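Why do we bother with holo predictions? Because pocket geometry can differ from the apo form. Keep that in mind while you read this record for S-adenosylmethionine.
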Amino acid sequence: MLDVGCGSGPSTAAAATAVHPGGMVTGIDIAAPMIAAARQRIRDRDIEWIVGDAESYPLPEGHYDAIISQMGLMFFTNNAKAFANLARASRAGGRLVGVVWPTRDKISTFRFLFNSVRQTLDRLHIAYQEPPLDFGPFSLGDDRYVEQLLGESGWTDIQIEEVERPMTMAAWETSKDQQSAVDWLQMGPANAYSRTTTGCACRGRQQLDPDHKATRYR
Ligand SMILES: C[S@@+](CC[C@H](N)C(=O)[O-])C[C@H]1O[C@@H](n2cnc3c(N)ncnc32)[C@H](O)[C@@H]1O
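The structure, written out:
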């Protein structure tokens, strides 16, 4: 089994447990620190780790029974090339199963963040260009695009299922949770917001973090 964009390896470890004994799992990630963290974290399972770009890495041909990915398929520079490379690495009849974001307008958390950013920038008369709905991590959010992309990259019997899960932000009780909430707000649009409207962002952060230290978040 191959885990694409495995990060620090949560799904790779679960896969290794699932195929034990007898199966073999490989995790590939473009970021060396992620693979280093995975190696450090998961020592009790026999996993092959690769630092490499899954878009072009010379994976063994016709090798994998299953290719999985937990939020790791949406970052390729050239999607067609990447999914063709994965199709080449899959054995005939092998499966590719991945979970990706839909377009950001379908996720209430991101809708909320984008609306907040939009309203604030408008109020401050700061000009901005809104990114397309499938920009960045939402690049595989359109079902018809994904169906066509996979079909043209050598995959067949394509099924797309919408799954809804609650996404919770940490509670406020401990400083660790506050840091987690601050980190969360630094993702994506909120990060852009904090870079363009520093004063407002700092006020927001002070509300989140009573021990606010401005330099900590630069
Ligand atoms: C959102 S993280 C998901 C990590 C992991 N699957 C998890 O569930 O925690 C996306 C991962 O994809 C990796 N990635 C991005 N582009 C990649 C590429 N072209 N080839 C391999 N890995 C890639 C990133 O380095 C990152 O670790």
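DSSP finds eight helices and five strands in the chain.
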